[in-house]
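#lab-general

N.A. 3:47 PM
ok so I finally got the sequence cleaned up, no stray characters, all 138 residues accounted for. can someone with queue access submit it? mine expired

B.Y. 3:52 PM
send it over

N.A. 3:53 PM
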Amino acid sequence: MGIKEEVYYSGGPHVGDLLVGLLLGVTIIFLPLTIGAIVRALWLRYRITNRRITVTGGWMGRDRSDIVYSEIAKVVTVPRGWGGWGDMVVTLKDGNRLELRALPRFREIYNYIEDKISAKARQKSGAIGERGKSKQSS
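B.Y. 4:20 PM
back already:
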């Protein structure tokens, strides 16, 4: 019998990321961005629970990364798409980073994750571009 996890968010990237990518695909110059948006829409999935963050992605969704909150050293968010979605970078205590691209409801998810991480990690974390209130210290 396993430990029950409460799922806070489960889903893929924001649909706006795909739409912007498709619009940019009209020009040949932005075609790699379009392909990236299509691949993210098809195979990238996020699952955020009260115990861990899980990202399933890669080609055909074959790669999976699980992070427990005690491993997190810092979380930084950046709004995208006029604030409709955002990117989040989770830095681990060993220095590795995990990017969560085109995350819908990224502000709510950031607040949820911030409540779960240690006080030391909370001090280092921040949101870039949020009304000039970046908590980041360089």
